């Protein structure tokens, strides 16, 4: 049975998401920005929370864990490298580990850069990826604890996922990301198409995610640092691609 998902907003611009296995009735929250919207989503769907899969230690991804755990007795799975900074952890995971949510299987991909121990979860059977604050729709996370080379390598790991992988990220930043992306590739027709699509969704009060990896590869400047035209337009032709990535990230920081 395919995984079901339920996406909702938390805090100011965080996404919460539930993933449900209708075979076993197991349900995982990917991160827990705050408890109340997760509880509301559980109530709406009628699902019972069995697991919380954490991507990284930032409080806007973990603030709801303790309240949810004390109410639902759910298992908390977290990146081994950051477990000491995350409340109520039951299990720690690393690169290549498998996490079962009922009959659903998630693969752990280490994607450091935003934080030093950030992980993403990929469900190959359903082609779902939960990438936290590493990759955003038409953007990427700030490089806070790692360095640009590390972040670029993490993005390459995600970029290797199948084009029809649905990407769930941690924040609704799409419109601001598109405004910036147009300064890097103003003539990218697929980026302009994404802008129209995002405008349409926002006008309908809908989230702009999930997005597909194939669409991100075509329009997200942070995944396009190795496109020769991008490097050339930044005056960095022939430089290592992580340096091109670093320049794009630096420009976004100042944007
Ligand atoms: Zn974060």
Tell me what portion of residues adopts beta-strand conformation: 15-25%
What is the count of structural domains?
2
For CATH, the homologous superfamily of the largest domain is named as: Ribonuclease Z/Hydroxyacylglutathione hydrolase-like
Q: What ligands does this structure carry? A: zinc ion
Q: Report the CATH architecture of the largest domain.
A: 4-Layer Sandwich
Sheet of most strands: 6 strands, mixed
Number of beta strands: 14
Structure summary:
The chain is α/β, with parallel strands linked by helices. The chain has 2 domains: 4-168, Metallo-beta-lactamase, Chain A; 174-254, no CATH class.
Could you walk me through the main structural features you see in this protein, from its secondary elements to its overall organization?
The chain folds into 2 domains: 4-168, Metallo-beta-lactamase, Chain A; 174-254, no CATH class. It is 35% helix and 22% strand. It has helices spanning 35-45, 59-62, 65-72, 148-159, 174-184, 189-203, 213-219, 228-233, 241-254; strands at 4-10, 14-20, 27-30, 51-53, 75-79, 91-93, 98-101, 104-110, 119-123, 128-130, 135-136, 139-140, 166-168, 211-212. The strands form 3 sheets. It has a 6-stranded mixed beta sheet with strand order 1-2-3-4-5-6, covered by helices on one side. It has a 6-stranded mixed beta sheet with strand order 7-8-9-10-13-14. Helix 4 crosses helix 9 (241-254) and helix 5 runs antiparallel to helix 6 (189-203). It is globular. Bound molecules: zinc ion. Zinc ion binds next to loops.
